[in-house]
Amino acid sequence: MKRSQVFILACVPMLILSLWALIYDISWLSNVAELSAYFILLAGFYRKLNLKSLNVSLFLGFSVIAEILGFFNDTQYTGLMLMFFQMASYVFLTREAHRYTERETANRFMILFFLMMIGANCFFVYRHFQELESKIAGIVEFGFYSLYYLNLLVLVIVGLIYYLNSYSRKSVLFVTLVMAIVVADILRDMSVFYLPDTSVLLLKSFLQFSAIILAFKFYSTKERKLKLINLV
């Protein structure tokens, strides 16, 4: 078994601890478990990570700061600061994926499929904001959420472009990571504005934990083209 796989398995107890803490409403313990996962995975992947790269170091740095702010997420302003550092980390995740995208001439079917996917994402984001508008208190908070989801939309678009013109293991990891991030963020809004249910929080926490692991896998995986059969 590879060194990195051993450290991924070492994160499983942290995941179980995080979910257990959410069930019993011990938020600080859940934050400790998620924060610990970063250091466990860093110990397992540091040989494969190019920590001199800004995209790697700043993504990890901003993500850890966001996790630390989670301990003090009891006011509106702390919550917005947490989202700001998450948003900043997504910028460098997007920059890393953009490095591997190439301009290629696509056929009409691929262009149509791409436009349909972008249109669907824009529609769902628009509908989500229509629902949030009545829940969010002020214009500043609404503007901040707008910027945050615009950032997510860019992340999704880059992920689609990267996946459609790459067919590599790294692109598969990235598009899976993006889906985990987006769904986890939507579930976060559900738990805050609509349905503060334990099952929603558990699924959000599971996806966030999965996203941490996928991010380390993404940054440590080299870009290698795959045959289509290998994607199945």
TrEMBL record:
It comes from the Bacteria. Keywords: Membrane, Transmembrane, Transmembrane helix. The chain crosses the membrane at residues 7-23, 29-46, 53-71, 77-93, 105-126, 146-164, 171-188, 200-219. This is YhhN-like protein. It comes from Christiangramia aestuarii.
